[in-house]
Structures are given as C-alpha cells and as structure tokens.
Amino acid sequence: MAHNHPRAIRFWLVLFMTGLFLSGVTAFPLQTELHWVLSILETPPVRRIAEATHLLPWIARVHHALFETNAQYPFLAYGTDWLAFAHLVLAVLFIGPYRDPVRNKWIITFGLIACGGVIPLALIAGHVRGIPLPWRLIDCSFGVFGAIPLVRCWLLISELENREIPAKI
Fold first, then answer.
1. Helices (H) and strands (E) in the chain — how many of each?
2. Are the CB atoms for 38 and 60 separated by under 8 Å?
3. How far is CA 23 from the centre of its chain?
4. Which uninterrupted H or E stretch holds 94?
5. How far is CA 66 from its chain centroid?
C-alpha cells in the first residue's frame, strides 16, 4: 500500500495548507468579520445562548476595542496584516513536502514544532493579555487540530523512507 502514500500525504497537506490559507485570509478583515459575528449573536434565537455562555459580552467587548483602535490607531492593524501574511507564507512552505515528501520531511517536523508552540503561547500570552480561558483553549485547539494532518503525513513519510532506504547490516 506504499503506492497510495504520496496521494494520502498530499491530501493531508492540502487540508493543512487550506487551514493556514483560510486563517491568513480571514485575519485581514477582522473588524468586518467581528461585526457579522456580533450581529448574529445579537439575534433573538442565538442571543440567550450567547449571553449564557458569556460569548456575547466577550465578542461585543472585542468588537468595541477593535472599532475604537482602528478609528484612532489604524496602523496597529498592520500587525494583524503581517500575521495574515505569515499564515499565507507558511502555507506555501508546505509545497515542498507536497512535491517531495521524503526530501522535505523536515518541513513537517517544523510544522509539528510550530503546532506544539501554539499551546504554551495561547496559555501564557493569553493569560497575560486577559484572554478568557475558554478562548485560550480554542486557540490551543488550532495547534492540536493542526498537528493531526501533520502527524499523519510524518508517519506516512517515515514509511516511505523505510521502503526507499535499504537496511544496513
């Protein structure tokens, strides 16, 4: 079944790269997106749940802060523009293992290290910045869920490596 490994690796990489791409693209229009989310959370059927889970007050606070910041200090949004750009660049990085998985396995390892780094960053920096714990855990989930396709790729590439490199005696 090693002949299906490249196809499976490409599937998992495209899934991962798509996630990075979408994370990047959606970091540009934050104020517009938060406005949409807030308007949905304020609709009568959703409002009760959003208030009970403290989601509505948090999103309203973030929306207000972003609106005020963008109105008075629009240059601060340049930081999220660079965050978005970094996601797009990182997605491009994974073209290497898409094209030649064995040779570029180190990129998968790099991605796994980055996914692991999401967790302490979200927990520590999120605490310092006053981000509520449930939101920090959602942020941690990006590292956990991002690692799933990369672990699968890493294992499949390892199997390919073992088939391509003859055992030394």
1. 8, 0
2. yes
3. 6
4. none
5. 21
One-letter amino acid of 89: V
What pLDDT does 169 receive?
Answer: 47
Q: Are 139 and 157 in contact (CB under 8 A)?
A: no
pLDDT per position as a tens digit, 59-115: 999 999 999 999 999 999 999 999 999 999 999 999 999 999 999 999 999 999 999
Identify which of 99, 142, 107, 98 has the alpha carbon closest to the alpha carbon of residue 122: 142
In this structure, are residues 16 and 146 in contact, taking their beta carbons and an 8 Å threshold? yes
pLDDT tens-place string over residues 23-37 = 999 999 999 999 999
| Rounded distance between C-alpha atoms, residue 14 and residue 7, angstroms | 11
What's the pLDDT at 4?
87
Q: What count of other Cβ atoms lies within 10 Å of the Cβ of residue 110?
A: 16
Full-model pTM? 0.88
Strand, helix or coil for residue 131: coil
Determine the residue type at 150. L
Residue reference for tokens 């229009």: 29
- The SS3 call for residue 26 is coil
Q: Within a 10 A sphere around the Cβ of 123, how many other Cβ atoms? A: 16
